[in-house]
Amino acid sequence: MLINLPSKVRCEYRCPSCGYRGTSEFSDPDAINEPEPIPGNSRHLAEQAFRNAEVALEKRAHQALTLVRCPSCQVRDRSGTRRAYRRALLPLLTLAPAIFMFCVIGTALSFPALVAARPWLPITVGCGGLSLLGPFVVQRAHRRLLREADQAVRFLPSSGPQPS
Question: What is the 3-state secondary structure (H, E, C) of the chain?
Fold first, then answer.
């Protein structure tokens, strides 16, 4: 059995700084516009898969709405931005061991005489490499999260700012 899973959802947006309220449409950038196969021919399983997809889509929409700029005051939600920085740390956690070991091995192979005199030098170079490349990796991941949220959310026309 094939089923078309939802890829767009309408959400209510409320700006925490200026009180703007509006309707937005979230389009899932990872959604496939083709029918998805559902195991078995049960209508109940298809309905359950559709409901699960709707819940997951609404959750992603809520996360994206905390990252977009308000159309009225152009301010991003601070708590959402902080959460995005925490999510942006994940790529660093996966790259940190590789960066550290690359610096340690590269230093040990490039300067064997210097390492023999100062055995702590490769570890220092590895820590230095992490401290230089770490902020770059996190900033790049954070910008990617913000860009994806901006591209996925579209504000629908309304009657204008409606302070609460």
Answer: CEECCCCEEEEEEECCCCCCEEEEEEECCCCCCCCEECCCCCHHHHHHHHHHHHHHHHHHHHHHHCCCCCCCCCCCCHHHHHHHHHHHHHHHHHHHHHHHHHHHHHHHHHCHHHHHHCCCHHHHHHHHHHHHHHHHHHHHHHHHHHHHHHHHEEECCCCCCCCC
Integer Cα distance of 72 and 147 in angstroms: 19
Of 65, 81, 88, residue with least CA distance to 14:
65
d(CA 103, CA 154): 44
Q: What is the mean pLDDT of the chain?
A: 85
Q: Residue 37 corresponds to which tokens in the numbers above?
A: 């196969």
| Average pLDDT of the segment spanning 26-38 | 73
Pairing of the two strands 8-14 and 2-3: unpaired
Q: Which of 63-67, 85-89, 121-125, 159-163 has the highest mean pLDDT?
A: 121-125
Q: Which two tokens stand for residue 125?
A: 């170079």
pLDDT tens, position by position, 109-151: 999 999 999 999 999 999 999 999 999 999 999 999 999 998 8
Structure-block tokens of residue 9? 């959802």
